[in-house]
Write a structure and sequence with these properties.
Shape: globular
Low-confidence stretches: 177-192
CATH topology of the largest domain: Tetracycline Repressor, domain 2
CATH superfamily of the largest domain: Tetracycline Repressor, domain 2
Strand content: under 5%
Number of helices: 10
Mean pLDDT: 82
Helix content: over 70%
Number of domains: 2
Distance between the termini: 55 Å
Order of helices and strands: HHHHHHHHHH
Length: about 190
């Protein structure tokens, strides 16, 4: 029942976004639109931003679980296509005062995804945990920054083209030596 209620709240927020700016939507608007109490909302979410994060996590989960055999780039294309399909909502959220809170959630989700990927991709003993964490942080801010610019520019580029450009940059340093080679070796010489 809990997941059904969360989905109802999600759908209610989406409907509200079709008629109101995000900054004007209240918890009361959301709960009245789906026929639940404010207490029910707060049982599931701390605030509207928690609901937004839930929506984003659901989108990532649905793309990931529905495409188990797809490579990460293909999953990212599907996620960007989904964002583009919901362009009005994304643009409304981007223009809202609450964007910094929403962006923090995006970074948390990206961090989790990249850490999971790093455990599979970079766990060969070649790099220290600190270097892997640094490379993951670098990736997180780079990818999310590119997506943020894509949103700011009106989502004009095709998702596949955007992912191809990201992929090209990442392939140029497949094991992140371009990132971690900036460190100094034990003799104090620069490795980059």
């Amino acid at each position: 029942m809990s997941e059904i209620t969360k989905r109802a709240l999600r759908d209610s927020l989406r409907k509200e976004l079709e008629t109101k700016p995000f900054d004007k939507i209240t918890v009361r608007d959301i709960t009245e639109a789906c026929g639940v109490s404010r207490m029910t909302f707060y049982y599931h979410f701390g605030d509207i931003y928690d609901l937004i994060e839930y929506i984003m996590r659901q989108a990532v989960y649905e793309v990931d679980s529905g495409n188990k055999d797809a490579v990460v780039g293909d999953k990212l294309i599907l996620l960007l296509e989904r964002m583009r399909k919901n362009k009005k909502m994304i643009m409304e959220l981007r223009a809202s005062r609450g964007w910094p809170s929403i962006e923090k959630a995006v970074y948390r989700i990206a961090d989790e995804v990249i850490k999971n990927l790093a455990g599979v991709t970079w766990d060969d003993g070649k790099f220290s945990d600190q270097e892997i964490q640094f490379a993951g942080t670098f990736m997180k801010y780079g990818i999310v920054g590119v997506i943020r610019d894509w949103i700011d520019n009106g989502m004009k580029e095709e998702p596949a083209d955007l992912v191809a450009m990201l992929s090209s940059v990442l392939r140029s340093s497949p094991d992140f030596t371009a990132v971690v080679s900036l460190r100094r070796d034990s003799a104090g010489k620069s490795k980059g």
